[in-house]
Write a structure and sequence with these properties.
This protein has 279 residues and is an alpha/beta fold. The chain has 2 domains: 2-81 and 167-276, Metal-dependent hydrolases (TIM Barrel, Alpha-Beta Barrel), CATH 3.20.20; 89-155, DNA polymerase, domain 1 (Orthogonal Bundle), CATH 1.10.150. Helix content is 41%, strand content 12%. The strands form 2 sheets. It has a 5-stranded mixed beta sheet with strand order 4-5-6-7-8. It has a 3-stranded parallel beta sheet with strand order 1-2-3, with helices on one face. Strand 2 (31-32), helix 2 (43-52) and strand 3 (56-57) form a beta-alpha-beta unit.
């Protein structure tokens, strides 16, 4: 069993790479990938830890793309995390993230919420700071009872403290990942659309532009959708990947390897992923 979708304290997860590897050993995982948002800072550390634990590893990174009316995330597997082109784009993306955070904090303060940058930064262990850290700070301050409430009232899309952030287009993400020697894979396709016909058209278009895979097996959705996603992947000669999208305590009820209890990503999918990587 493998897990190709997880997050660490380098982005918005609550577990360090070392803790993730320990959990992977407990779950008897044979392979894993760290897919932090907009950063590859944990890749070297994770590679060393998994080597010692005799768990196969491939680098990963998850991007949000600029797609109207939906959440379209693209994971890059096997990217060279010392690639200069990738490094320049990450500086651009994270520069935009910082500007967004400043705007969100300004909006919260203007609505009478006493929150400062130290409060938010205290919730993050890595350099990437985003909405999950705002949500945690709002809970700690007693502004909301739980993080879901923070999104519903304040920082969710379109809410009073929401601010747009800098993103690449889906094609831009695909081209960047390929330029850095990786395989681009659309993550959790249900967040794009629940309509299979619409998804089929979109994935076919992206496949023509260099998409390499589709996250068929996901830790937070029902098995019924897997059949549709697998068929779409096969129609477009895409590899199927899967993972729990584990964030530690930030994803209650989701476990590494098994998701919400019924996830099982087969070992052979890791080999198929490696086969797609440029030589």
């Amino acid at each position: 069993m493998i897990d190709l979708h997880m997050h660490s304290t380098y982005s918005d997860g609550t577990c360090t790479p070392s803790e993730l590897v320990n959990l992977a050993r407990e779950a008897n995982l044979t392979a894993m990938s760290l897919t932090d948002h907009d950063t590859l800072a944990g890749a070297d550390e994770m590679a060393e830890l998994t080597k010692k634990a005799d768990i196969r590893f491939v680098s990963g990174i998850e991007f949000s793309s600029d797609y109207p009316g939906a959440v379209l995330h693209i994971i890059g597997y096997g990217v060279n995390h010392h690639n200069e082109i990738m490094d320049e784009h990450l500086k651009w993306i994270n520069g935009g993230r910082k500007a967004r955070n400043i705007e969100m904090l300004r909006k919260l303060n203007n609505h009478g919420i006493s929150l400062n940058w130290r409060d938010i930064a205290a919730e993050a262990s890595g350099e990437v700071i985003g909405r999950p850290h705002f949500a945690a700070a709002l809970v700690k301050k007693g502004v909301v009872k739980h993080t879901q409430q923070a999104y519903r009232r304040y920082i969710g899309d379109g809410k009073m403290a929401f601010a747009e952030r800098r993103c690449l287009s889906p094609v831009g993400c695909i081209e960047l990942i390929r330029a850095a020697g990786g395989v681009p894979v659309v993550a959790h396709p249900y967040t794009i659309t629940h309509k299979v016909k619409k998804l089929r058209v979109l994935i076919a278009e992206l496949a023509e532009l260099g998409l390499g895979g589709l996250e068929v097996y996901y830790g937070q959705k029902q098995k019924a959708q897997e059949r549709d996603y697998l068929k779409i992947a096969q129609e477009n000669n895409l590899i199927a990947t899967g993972g729990s999208d584990f964030h530690g305590t930030a994803s209650p009820g989701v476990h590494l390897g098994t998701g919400r209890g019924d996830l099982e990503v087969r070992d052979e999918l890791f080999d198929k992923l490696l086969e797609r990587l440029p030589s």
